[in-house]
Amino acid sequence: MSGTTDDRLPPDGAVRPRGERPVTMWDVARRANVSQSTVSFVLNESTSVRIAPATRERVLAAVRELGYRRNAMAAGLRSGTSAVIGFVTDAIATTPFAGQVILGAQDAAWDKRHLLLVVNTESAPEVERQAVAMLLEHRVRAIVYSTWYHRPVTLPAGIDEVPVMLVNCFVPDADLPAVVSDERQGGRCATEVLIERGHRRIGFLTDAETAAPATTERLEGYRDALGDAGLPFEPDLVHVVTPDQEGGYAGALALLAGAERPTALFCYNDRVAMGAYAAIGERGLSVPGDVAVMGFDDQEVIAAHLRPPLSTIALPHYEMGHRGISRLLDLLDGGAAGSGVERLPCPYIERASV
Amino acid sequence: MSGTTDDRLPPDGAVRPRGERPVTMWDVARRANVSQSTVSFVLNESTSVRIAPATRERVLAAVRELGYRRNAMAAGLRSGTSAVIGFVTDAIATTPFAGQVILGAQDAAWDKRHLLLVVNTESAPEVERQAVAMLLEHRVRAIVYSTWYHRPVTLPAGIDEVPVMLVNCFVPDADLPAVVSDERQGGRCATEVLIERGHRRIGFLTDAETAAPATTERLEGYRDALGDAGLPFEPDLVHVVTPDQEGGYAGALALLAGAERPTALFCYNDRVAMGAYAAIGERGLSVPGDVAVMGFDDQEVIAAHLRPPLSTIALPHYEMGHRGISRLLDLLDGGAAGSGVERLPCPYIERASV
């Protein structure tokens, strides 16, 4: 999307369970079918970026409809000084995948007059060590430690001189405060939606990464949903693929070649789903008429833009970042919200592929 | 690509002009067909991430073949203390687009024992102001100011108390030191490649963003190449679209419906190209047999994974970040490399669509 802000055209009909949590910029962006950056540009009345008048109107309409409090963004920083929270990550700032974690953390920090200082380490141990030492020397009040995908980690020495919150990762066999995505619920939700639409033979194109919760727990969720519906778990319907378009293409071809082909494919991620689309098309079949396709991740540059737009399960990146900082700040204020691993739901995003 | 590192399968046959610049992690990643994160995990012997043995071997082979100096990564930080450089950006850390700018900047900084502190501001003026004040208070040696796409900017007050380098942006009518991408050369290169392959009617699906160099200068490059080849500029072959898949789909349908249809489409970005693929397929035509398609950006999650893999022009994100920091550090060391706008070439990445 070089040269302009992302301005999605088709309504994506997002369906999100909504509890008591405050309305975020993420909600506004989704309602208005634009990126968070566009919402930010509109709300900040940025003059350096051209926003189409119709887009601006749509954003402001969404702000009104959802009752978004503008000052949740940066008003907290408008006057006076601010405190600093460190954000140490392996690669969130440099990969195209999980940047919304940083956005959510920023929004929560700015709302309480804290600035977020990000250090991206590419998992290099010496960089991590220096980053933590430098952040402590610069008197950060707390540190978020976060990874670009959900995985186990080992914390760098010294980090616990200040309160620490893990986001999108966890230390095995430790009860450190953490916010992660609920992969099992996500896998269950994806499968339940397909079952509700009448599917009985649901293929699952999954990954082989044994240490990743995304692999083990989404499969558990798939089995949970089948079991609840009284459907058998058929190992032949689970196909391990490389987690990209090429894997999805090959895996879908393999599953569709079976004698009794599945009528739906639950894909490990949106890239796998994109490859599955190609295989389905090549077989002369259609999505969702002949084969329903469910993705995972809700990856910004892909999911809403496939033909047909992809129904998928979103990773709560924004929410994890926001919640991680909120819990840290509660803790710093003397609250008790700081311990234990919290799992945030992965919401279903309905579009047109199931 | 949730749950695992990005492990691309097909060789992408990248063609990059190579001068005297040092071999970077980016080069290793491209040669091995993996992400930079994967290279980093392998080189750091990370135990928290499972890398397939074949992938590890491929990375190490690429390191040997290219003569990559491992200590260009983080060895500079291995002992002793480090100085700090601030990196202020609108949204690079939070969008899926330009993260490689931060990676390049990091590599250059770490190589000279500097840590990079990133503040992502979403263009909120008060956040920028506080970020700069805080970085100065924390004694950064210099500040990089960078944007997620190439555009004009206004610098926040006070930033020039230390040396400043602009990366991927510029201040109009000022001679501040900056590193940007050469959009005109990129547009020319894309068109020249298509002309060399024998195309005479080359459609251009472009964006309407009048203030963006990506829009105005790529069109200039397209016209340059046509003129050099003695081909007429035909306004009917230039079609303005929204810069995403939906725009590419509609624009390609429109151009292909003409009486004398183009045999090649130069697309404003890879997302537009992805939409063009869909339109070409729907018309019963093939890529590149009936219509050649050229992208722009080399966006990680799309370009190499389309069917056929997309030939495209890469934005030199990594190189811009690396060069920006290198120039700053030269300047801090008393060198004279600090003034003027430097344009880095956008290299052609050959795959299978032209």
Q: What is the topological layout?
A:
The structure is a homodimer of 354-residue chains.
Chain A: H1 25-32, H2 36-43, H3 53-66, E1 83-89, H4 99-111, E2 114-120, H5 125-137, E3 143-152, E4 164-170, E5 178-181, H6 183-196, E6 202-206, H7 213-228, E7 238-240, H8 245-256, E8 264-267, H9 270-282, E9 292-294, E10 312-313, H10 317-332, E11 341-344, E12 348-349
Parallel strand pairs in A: 1-2, 1-3, 3-4, 4-5, 5-11, 6-7, 6-8, 8-9
Antiparallel strand pairs in A: 10-12
Helix pairs in contact in A: 1-2, 1-3, 4-10, 6-7, 8-9
**Biggest β-sheet description of chain A:** 6 strands, parallel
Oligomeric description of these chains: homodimer
Task: State the helix count of chain A.
Answer: 10
- What is the percentage of strand-forming residues of chain A? 15-25%
Characterization of this structure:
2 copies of one chain form a homodimer. Chain A is built from 10 helices and 12 strands. Chain A has 354 residues and is of the alpha/beta class. The first copy, chain A, has 3 domains: 1-73, 434 Repressor (Amino-terminal Domain); 81-181 and 318-344, 3-Layer(aba) Sandwich (Rossmann fold), CATH 3.40.50.2300; 183-313, Response regulator (Rossmann fold, 3-Layer(aba) Sandwich). In chain A, the strands form 3 sheets. A 6-stranded parallel beta sheet of chain A has the order 2-1-3-4-5-11, with helices on both faces. The first copy, chain A, has a 4-stranded parallel beta sheet with strand order 7-6-8-9, sandwiched between helices. A two-stranded antiparallel sheet of chain A has the order 10-12. In chain A, helix 4 links the parallel strand 1 and strand 2 (114-120). Chain A is globular. Mean pLDDT of chain A is 86; it is low at 1-20 and 71-76. The interface between A and B is large, with 96 and 97 residues.
